[in-house]
Design brief:
Pfam family, one (chain B): ABC_tran
Helix content of chain C: over 70%
CATH topology of chain A: ABC transporter involved in vitamin B12 uptake, BtuC
Low-confidence stretches of chain A: none
Helix content of chain A: over 70%
Shape of chain C: globular
Radius of gyration of chain A: 19 Å
Largest sheet of chain A: 2 strands, antiparallel
GO biological process, one term (chain B): L-valine import across plasma membrane
CATH class of chain A: Mainly Alpha
CATH architecture of chain A: Orthogonal Bundle
Number of domains of chain A: 1
Mean pLDDT of chain C: 86
Number of strands of chain A: 2
GO cellular component, one term (chain B): plasma membrane
Number of helices of chain C: 15
Distance between the termini of chain A: 51 Å
Radius of gyration of chain C: 22 Å
Protein name (chain B): ABC transporter ATP-binding protein
Distance between the termini of chain C: 63 Å
Strand order of the largest sheet of chain A: 1-2
Oligomer: heterotrimer
Strand content of chain A: under 5%
Bound molecules: adenosine-5'-diphosphate, magnesium ion
Order of helices and strands of chain C: HHHHHHHEHHHHEHHHH
Number of helices of chain A: 11
Shape of chain A: globular
Number of strands of chain C: 2
Largest interface: B-C, 66 and 39 residues
Order of helices and strands of chain A: HHHHEEHHHHHHH
Domain ABC transporter (chain B): 2-250
Mean pLDDT of chain A: 85
Chains: A mainly alpha (288), B alpha/beta (258), C mainly alpha (331)
Chain lengths: 288, 258, 331
Amino acid sequence: MQIIVSGLIFGCIYGLAALGLVLIYKTTDLVNFAQGEMAMVTTFVSFTFLSQFEMGYTTSFLLALLFAAVFGAIVHQGIMKRLQSAPPLNQLVVTLGLFMVFNGLAGLIWGHKPAGYPQAIKGDSIKMGSVFFTPNEIFVMGITLTLMLIFFVIFRYTKVGLAMRASAQDIKASQLMGIKVTNVFTATWAVGAILGGVAGMMTAPITFLDTHMMFDVLIMAFAAAVLGGFLSLPGAVVGGLIIGVFENLIAFYLSPELKLVYTFLLIIIVLYIRPQGIFGGTQSVKKV
Amino acid sequence: MLTFNDITVQFGGLTAVNSLSFEVPKGQIYSIIGPNGAGKTTVFNCISRFYTPSKGSILFNGEDLIKYKPHQIINKGIARSFQNVELFTKMTVMENLLTGLHPLLKKNIFPIALNLPSVKRMEKDARDQAYEVMDLLNITDLANEKVSNLSFGFQKMVDIGRAMIVNPQLILLDEPVAGMNPIETEKISELILRLKNELGYTVLLIEHDMSLVMKVSDAVTVMNFGKKISEGTPAEVQNDPVVIEAYLGEVETHVAAK
Amino acid sequence: MILKLLENKRLTIGLLVVFMLIYPFLVGNSNYFMTLFVITCIYAITSMSLNLLIGYGGQISVGHAGFLTVGGYSVAILSSTVGLPFFLALPLAGIMTGSIGLLIGLPAVRLKGHFLAVATLGFGLSIPQIVLNWDGLTGGYSGLAVTKPLMFGSDFSLFYVFVVITVIITWLIQNIVKSSLGRAFIAIRDSEVAAQAIGINISFYKTTMFVISSFFTGIAGGIYGYWVGFVSPNDFIITNSFLVLAMIVVGGLASIPGSIIGAVLFSVIPHFTDSYIGITNIVIGIAVVLIILFKPDGIVSLFKMNKQKLVKPAGKGELLVQGGEKENANI
Ligand SMILES: Nc1ncnc2c1ncn2[C@@H]1O[C@H](COP(=O)(O)OP(=O)(O)O)[C@@H](O)[C@H]1O
Ligand SMILES: [Mg+2]
């Protein structure tokens, strides 16, 4: 049970990052491989606020998210906007290029030595039934569920969400209806970066803060998004939770070194049975 | 030669083809007409095995096609063109036609990788064949043009050429003259007649251009809402009141839409 | 001016061959520069193989470095543990890697786009882990030594052997993509529907692509093993896969010269920047972003554009005029 619960914690982080990926993909048709590195940079920024300027956790957290939003918006406005109609492979490789740039820059600015990063909430473990929770773990789960709910509601029920869905469906028609598609896309990138940033600040206390910390998270988030069908927001989170728990179970019962291998084996088997992912809906016959 | 026995195709709740039966005799030009959405293209897609009917059988030379996969149909002697042209857009006209020859070319990787003389010879023969087809279609000067640079009319011709190049017994043409000007249309109607008279093909034709249908067809089936509503010689269906009504309906909705 | 000269294919290839032949003398037999060259050859073979799969066949792989690792370990095991000679071990390494490619290709046939990307990503990530943990076969963390072929004596002759192999593989791949096989790959990329209608068995050819691509990549991995004399789990990791992907997109998709250009560019950049690892990443990253923004068809399009202007006959304008008349529903 304890193993499942700690798996869920990682699952939440994967789910958060996956949520960002799917949100951006759903709206702008781009897969952002630089998401993890953007999150890493955001986390370093928050760390700078914390340690250099000695601000409180909450202030640093919020300021860092503000930074993430601006960062995401700049990346979209400056680069990704120009690739809106480029072939998907070009888009993908550009985000890989950005991945390398951000990774290199972060190394230049903050160095390559891992540093400790504080948890959001300190305190002793609480026992519930037979399972121990740290307050921080409860915080991670809480924030994931809250954010997921918020974005689900925004996407489904608000005007902004409507604009996002409309832009995703049909760029031209949305423009004609007066939706500023580019602005909507930029906003989506900002939100995606925020989600990634939250995931980053949740990851850092567990893995230590360094330039590679988000790599595995991004990979797993990508896998989670795919498992969930890549177009479903709840699917992304559920995919993240499945992967987190599965990974932890494998690490405990089979082999911690090979957890990645087994996780991908699971994903490939799932995709073989359902090539459109778990939440991908049924495949329709292609119209010729 | 080709027999549809009680074929029904459904997409979710929509019945695109409803208990359709007809028979295409060998060596004839057989046309299917009907308003948009009648289910004509769906008929082709069943023959090509892209769609699987929920009921019925499709016999070709006495053999049921349902058990085959899409890529096996051409080896039975059935080739097709597409309503919205499905060309290999980054290839030239020549390359599109050569790709159409796929079933007849050797594909063993070892001689190919070494570019052995046998492969070179085969390629040269294939090119000659492609030039013959281009000659028939009068597009020889476009051989090395990328198909994406061509007008829709020329693209349709390449699409037809790619189906012809393997010398099928039965060729399925889905609206071959849509998007063509009258001169091109005239050329295609001559071509279709030559396919039958000189090359001995059986032709199954979907077309909206009635003058073409009337001119070339030996027999016509009229479809509406997935059902056969009339069948006979061109003259017979032309005067069938049921047919006239079906088309009037379409004209009215067209007008209403504008 | 130089661009014009390079359009003459024979001349370019001739110059390249001469350059490769005299290269060891140009660099004074320096081990460092010869290694740089061999690494470039390895990446050239890998990027051509990947381009066959992605550029021609339209099937994405983000785990190709995994095949390099398999190839490298194959020669290590075959040469050191089994004791096979060079001329058997290297092709066998290709065949072993090709078999793994078959294994990956089978499920990949059902997957498209991001889904295929994740499956191949998983492969690329898993291989180093598997190698690391399969101590009995691979020596785990400490890696494996490769027995260098005695018959060539020095690295100097081995260099020429590898250059010749690279040239031959380039020729083989060029023949494949220009053949009926290559056309079948492109057909699948451009329209699966039409490909099936003209008799192309999509699953079979997708699997074939994976096998061919991984076979040659395995040979490249084998060359690496023989040249360095040692393989370890982290020689080719997922970032190397990303790098090869960048090579083909930046060099030019569905282009053999493009693959080579990309491979040369990204193999040589680290030579100028490797005093600090972060800088290499930044320079390569910026190069990738800029080239794709401003030359979306890759560097090779610089050459192609001139060429097209040269060969395009005049007066083809009327082709672009739409043939008029839409359906008339009169009966
Ligand atoms: N793959 C498909 N999925 C869902 N509906 C389809 C599909 N293919 C065809 N249809 C529907 O079947 C009906 C018949 O289509 P079609 O055969 O293309 O008509 P026609 O060629 O006569 O214009 C239409 O209502 C069309 O929307
Ligand atoms: Mg139709």
